[in-house]
Amino acid sequence: MSGDDSSRVGGPVFEVRTTLQARLLSDAGSREYFLPFLARTRSVSEAAREVGCPLDAMHYRVKRFLAAGLLAVVEERPRAGRPIKLYRSVGDAFHIPFALTPYAELEERIRSDVMAEEERVIVTLARALRESGLEGRRLYRSEDGEAMYVTADPAEGTLDWRAVVRAWPEHHRVTDRYSSDFELTDGEARELLLALHEVHERFRTLDRSDGRARRTYHVQFAVVPWEP
Q1: Of 70, 145, 169, 175, which has the maximum CB count within 10 A?
Q2: pLDDT in tens, 134-161
Q3: How many CB atoms lie within 10 A of CB 90?
Q4: Three-state SS string across 82-127, please?
Q5: What's the pLDDT tens digit per position in 5-45?
Q6: What one-character DSSP code corresponds to residue 90?
Q7: 146-158 burial, b for 16+ CB within 10 Å, e for fewer?
Q8: Helices 55-67 and 44-51 meet at what angle, rounded to 10?
Q9: Do 14 and 95 touch, CB atoms closer than 8 A?
Q10: Integer Cα distance of 196 and 121 in angstroms
Q11: What does pTM read for this prediction?
């Protein structure tokens, strides 16, 4: 990959001005192909490897981003024959006015983003549960009175998921989705959100120079009040 791998916080912000630009950056599927070039320099083949898509698919997307004015050729890498073009986003950040997006309501835009992620989570979770044989669920009330609906082993009763996770070998593929409702004051909810952000930042900035094998994990959390 190119040596220019910076992700400059506070770099130039590109103001999106056309509905085509807004659509390409708002749609989660399209945006996935754009992200390798965001504030970074990449060839088409490098971006394709990063996304995990066929080279032809990335070529097609790059042509669309170029035509829309979202990408620019910033360098050419010499080689025998035709040089390799390197691309970078025209801004290090993009402001996308909601009025230019293809969504009629803000809820529709949020739904589009969430559902694109949720579909991938659902497919991955289902595969992991089938492989583990833990496809069943158990509905019960815990000793402290909370209604629980959790993954369960029919032979063992209610599953101690923490014990299962601790028993996984080092290179076991980790997959889970957890949610719960807490009775909290607004101040306690703020503390919870800050704690989640601290955990997120800790693992986002881990030193990855030790050469150990890693895979990309999708991590999500939400703290929202259930309104009537």
Answers
A1: 70
A2: 667 777 777 777 776 676 666 555 556 6
A3: 18
A4: CCEEEEEECCCEEECCHHHCCCCCHHHHHHHHHHHHHHHHHHHHHH
A5: 444 445 689 999 999 999 999 988 899 999 999 999 999 99
A6: S
A7: eeeeebbeeeeee
A8: 120
A9: yes
A10: 20
A11: 0.60
